[in-house]
Design a protein that fits this description.
Layout: E1 8-11, E2 15-21, E3 30-33, E4 38-41, E5 55-56, E6 78-82, E7 89-92, E8 97-100, E9 106-109, E10 121-123, H1 126-139, E11 147-149, E12 156-158, E13 167-170, E14 175-178, E15 181-185, E16 188-189, E17 191-193, H2 199-210
Antiparallel strand pairs: 1-2, 1-5, 2-3, 3-4, 6-7, 6-10, 7-8, 8-9, 11-12, 11-17, 13-14, 14-15, 15-16
Length: 212
């Protein structure tokens, strides 16, 4: 028998107590006297009507115990920001995943992904989506005067040198526009092309740069 009469014992629910009886010949022979209650335990320290041993010679705690309801998994087909990597923003779909990594590059994958975990990430606001996507667009050359190949089509579009509209994000179609032109949709970007300039255009550009 682990416990005997006179032992000082501890139960996390009742604190310190003393074994005042321990030799009865039945299922719960240990009688423990706590400060405000007397209870019976079996020889392994399991309380009557209990399931697991809780009687101990030393004081202990139940680490990890919680009755806070866990958060539900977050939905698919949304943009998310990582708490650990605030520069990263990713669109999490059931069979597709794309967006900016914490290193600043664009990532595009098609696979079956687990549902986003609410402990690690949070939903991005439209303002955050616009801010991060427009910054990336600028980094790949989407700006005033640029020329790009339209998505899914074989023709070029030139952005005005002085556009009246900047970057806008369309939530319904999950797309980014610049001056009204579609430049990103469902993770696919337009291709910016370098237009060959004539010698006269090169000279004019240099003069403009020098302020001549």
């Amino acid at each position: 028998m682990i416990f005997k009469k006179g032992d000082k014992v501890y139960d996390h629910a009742y604190g310190w107590g003393e074994v005042i009886k321990g030799d009865d010949d039945h299922a719960y022979p240990l009688k423990i006297e706590f400060q405000h209650i007397e209870l019976y335990y079996n020889v392994k320290g399991v309380a009557e009507f209990g399931f697991l041993p809780t009687l101990s010679f030393t004081e202990y705690t139940l680490e990890g115990f919680s009755q806070v309801r866990p958060k539900e998994p977050l939905p698919f087909d949304r943009w998310y920001i990582w708490d650990e990597y605030p520069n990263q923003i990713m669109f999490e779909g059931r069979y597709i995943r794309y967006g900016l990594t914490y290193m600043g590059g664009w990532r595009y994958n098609t696979d079956n992904y687990p549902r986003p975990m609410s402990k690690l990430i949070r939903l991005a606001t439209d303002a955050e989506i616009l801010e991060k996507l427009s910054a990336y667009a600028t980094s790949i050359g989407i700006m005033a005067g640029a020329t790009f190949v339209a998505l899914g089509r074989d023709f070029r579009i030139k952005i005005e040198d002085k556009p009246s509209i900047g970057f806008t994000y369309n939530t319904e179609y999950n797309s980014l526009l610049f001056d009204g032109w579609l430049i990103m949709r469902d993770g696919k970007w337009v291709t910016v092309v370098e237009e060959t300039k004539t010698l006269a255009e090169e000279i004019q550009a240099i003069k403009k740069h020098l302020g001549i």
